[in-house]
Design a protein that fits this description.
This protein has 423 residues and is an alpha+beta fold. 64% of the residues lie in helices and 6% in strands. Among the domains are: 131 residues, no CATH class; 69 residues, Serine Threonine Protein Phosphatase 5, Tetratricopeptide repeat (Alpha Horseshoe). Helix 6 runs parallel beside helix 8 and helix 12 runs antiparallel to helix 13.
């Protein structure tokens, strides 16, 4: 009997793979002036409102609790007044609290950093203490407007609305919000990108492709859009071109290295795939799918123990990764450890009850443990899930043969041969 199936675990494209341009820029080192800035804010209570400034030009997160959607709406309106093209302030909805994100565009002298943080902490503190939806004092807003210019562009508000609606799984409303942002600002690359994400999630890849193409036309130096577009291509060559471009623009784009490795793997270019996986893991040591892929490559090279170590690491990071259990079970089976392999196949089926390969693998073990009825049961389940799985018919035929059921064995052998010819 032959098992002969391993899984990459990363062949599916999902919305989780997309890059959200505005929020997911690679984290950089804390601004060197941050501590000095915070130390100049004397009020301890104000200091405690400042959560972090962890990018080189700064993102300062201020947290507060709000009581109602009406209050959140007031937050959004209020903080929009202290934003402009260089300093953008946005409230995002979360259960039980509101997040305020501040995005700065360089360069800013020290005095501007100080003014920004002190003023925003004061006005946010005033707002968050108020619970009836009315402002007691707009003096801070007036000061900020005088210092920082006009309010936030309406297109930005619709853009953020689209993000919130997407987070709430309201896809049609998110598309409408992004469309409004584009209507107000036709050159808004990020809005095209994010609308493309939602359209792809809705199962409209042609429209998503149009949006990604437009985003690239508007800004050909945004790595995230190339990465997102790569997911849509049926052609591996085109996908590879887009992953190459994403990496050329952003050499720390670990997701792009991982995805490019998957294409090299499918092409059989194992050394290139391994180099990309090594780079991805160097950039982010928690990429469980990258360890899984690396395990497959070591297995292809005949290094079973090395492969086992990679699958172990993948499962340490994500204990609910069903593909990792399946692949580890397959290696354990090749190493002759049937008991541990059986446990991993059991776990795979627990996590992914419609995984025909896992039933096939477990049936394989039952056959070798001479538990023929169990083997028949698992092989039959695999066929129920995937009626075109020729190997299962063939191996179930061996079981029937061993049980003395020659007619059933012959029927399964014929079916396996028929499927092989038609494939």
């Amino acid at each position: 009997m032959d098992l002969g199936i391993l899984k990459c675990g990363a062949c599916k494209a999902s919305i989780c793979d997309t890059q959200d341009i505005w929020w997911n820029n690679p984290p950089l080192e804390k601004h060197p002036l941050f501590d000095e800035i915070i130390n100049r804010i004397d009020d301890k209570e104000k200091k405690n409102l400042v959560k972090s400034m962890n990018r080189i030009v700064g993102i300062c997160e201020l947290y507060a609790v709000y009581d109602s959607d009406e209050f959140l709406k007031d937050c959004q309106t209020y903080l929009a007044k202290v934003s402009n093209d260089y300093i953008r302030v946005v409230v995002r909805h979360k259960n039980g609290g509101g997040d305020v994100y501040i995005r700065l565009t360089p360069p800013f002298p020290l005095i501007s950093y100080l003014f920004l943080i002190e003023s925003l902490v004061r006005c946010c503190k005033e707002l968050f203490e108020f619970r009836d939806g009315k402002m007691r004092n707009l003096s801070e807003v007036k000061q900020m407007n005088e210092a920082l210019g006009e309010g936030v562009l309406p297109s930005r508000i619709y853009y953020e609305k689209g993000k919130n609606l997407y987070d709430m799984k309201k896809m049609d409303e998110a598309i409408a919000a992004y469309s409004k942002a584009i209507e107000l600002e036709p050159s808004y690359c990020e809005a095209y990108n994010n609308r493309g994400i939602v359209l792809n999630c809705k199962g409209e890849p042609e429209k998503a492709l149009e949006d990604y193409n437009k985003a690239i036309e508007l800004n050909p130096y945004n790595s995230a859009v190339y990465y997102n577009r790569a997911h849509l291509w049926d052609s591996k060559e085109k996908a590879l071109e887009d992953y190459n471009k994403a990496i050329e623009i952003n050499q720390k784009f670990h997701e792009a290295y991982q995805k490019r490795a998957s294409i090299f793997y499918e092409y059989g270019e194992m050394d290139k795939a391994l180099m990309d996986l090594n780079k991805a893991i160097e950039l982010n040591s928690n990429l469980f799918e990258a360890y899984n892929y690396r395990g497959l490559i070591w297995l292809d090279k005949g290094e079973k123990n090395q492969a086992l170590a990679e699958f172990n690491r993948s499962l340490e990071i994500n204990p609910d990764f069903s593909t990792g259990y399946y692949n580890r079970a397959s290696v354990l089976l090749e190493l002759g450890d049937l008991e541990k392999a059986l446990l991993d196949f059991n776990k795979t089926i627990e996590l992914a009850p419609n995984d025909s390969d896992a039933y096939y693998g477990r049936g394989f073990i039952w056959y070798h443990k001479d538990k023929l009825d169990n083997a028949i049961s698992d092989f039959s389940m695999a066929i129920k899930i995937n009626p075109h799985f020729s190997k299962v018919y063939k191996n179930r035929g061996y079981v029937w043969q061993k049980k003395g059921e020659r007619d059933k064995a012959s029927a399964d052998f014929r079916k396996a041969q028929e499927l092989d010819i038609n494939q």
